[in-house]
Structures are given as structure tokens and as C-alpha cells.
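Example record

Each entry pairs one chain with its bound ligand, inosinic acid.
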Amino acid sequence: MLRYVTTNEGKIAEAREYLDDVSALDFDCTEIQSDSLGAIAARGAREAHAHADEPVIVDDAGLFVDALSGFPGPYSSYVEDTVGIEGVGRLAERERDEGQDDRAVFRCVIAFCDGEEFAASPDPVDRGDRVSAAATGPTDGEAGDDNGGDSDASGPPVKLFEGAVRGRIVEPRGDGGFGYDPIFEHDGTTLAEMSTAEKNAISHRGRALAKFGEWYHERK
Ligand code: IMP
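C-alpha cells for the complex follow.
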């Protein structure tokens, strides 16, 4: 069975929309210091696979604000806990140049590892969709090698799938969701104002899961 390394039931419910057979794995992956979501997720996937000896997926997500040159990005969790989401909103407002837009992108990378080579894949490790990743803004700097951008890595290959959603940084609105949802507006609605189903349909994680699900079903 495929294991999703998370303790978040919402993520498992979301993953079940794209995958027939997936269950949670409570495992504390090492979060390496890196500016690459892919490298962080890849390291976690290798560790989790070595621990569980089952096919695993590990995700890593972050909010990349244009006016802050992509900050907080891979540091989103730490920044949420320290500066807070309203602090990020104020920082973005302050740093925005006259006439510069208030855009940002949420990114999620899902890393898959089952200890095997990806013989069916043209590239042993792939970003899932390089073209759309390139079109959606700053890249995470993953290499196209079998390290998933994790330059210290050794071990089995990892395959990466990226999803992104573009939006604007706004004053907090809405009570739903979690994390940065209240300050991230997509098509006029903040993620915190959306129902779970509405958010999942457009979310960075939903998009990454959809790409992974398609590949995984074909591979099985
Ligand atoms: P993680 O990779 O799921 O641990 O998320 C990293 C950081 O991004 C945390 O601060 C989360 O609160 C934030 N984050 C991840 N996904 C979302 C989302 O869908 N909405 C709002 N914040 C998110």
C-alpha cells in the first residue's frame, strides 16, 4: 500500500480523491536546510522509504511572494510560527515597489520513492511537469538527476511532482483552511473563504497529487 507521510487527516482525505489505496504514515522526516522544496521532499521520501519499506510519498509546500523575491518559500512553516501570516502580509505590502503587483504562488512538491528504478520514465527523476512548472514562476532549483535536487543524497531514485497555484497577497479574510489561506486570494476569493472541495480543486497540493496519481496508476 502507498503511504503518505503526514499526520494531517485533511491531506489524506485530499489524496484519496486521486489515489485508490493510500494511508497515513506517521514518520518524522529530517527537514534539510535547502531553498528547494524538491530537495527537502526527496530527502524525506528516501528516509521514509528506508524506514517503512513500502512505497511512500512526502510533500513539501510553501508560499512564494513575488515582492519578497520568493520569501518565505521553503521557510514558510518557520515564518508562519515566528512572523505570522499577517506579518508576511505587512512585509509584502512594505516591500512592494510602486506599481509592482501583489502576486504570489503556492507550490507543493510531492516526492515518491519505492526503492526501485523508474524504468518506464524517460528520466529517473522528473519534476512531473517541467513545462508548467517553468510557466508558473520561480523554480525550486531541482536538478534533473536522480537526487531530486538533494545534492547530499544517496539511495534510491525519487520522482518529483509539482503543483502550483497563483494568487495575490491580501488582508486576511475567511475562517476556513489553515496556514496562509486567509491572506492568499485566488480569483477574487481567499483560500480560507473556499469550501474544502473548492480549495482542493485548485490547490497546489491537489494539482501535484493529480499529476502523481495519473503517473502512479499508469505505472502500477
Ligand atoms: P507543509 O509543507 O504542509 O508542512 O507546509 C509548509 C508551510 O506552508 C506551513 O506554514 C503551512 O501552513 C503552509 N501551507 C502549506 N500548504 C498550505 C495551504 O494549502 N494553505 C495555506 N498554507 C499552507
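The two ends are 12 Å apart (CA to CA).
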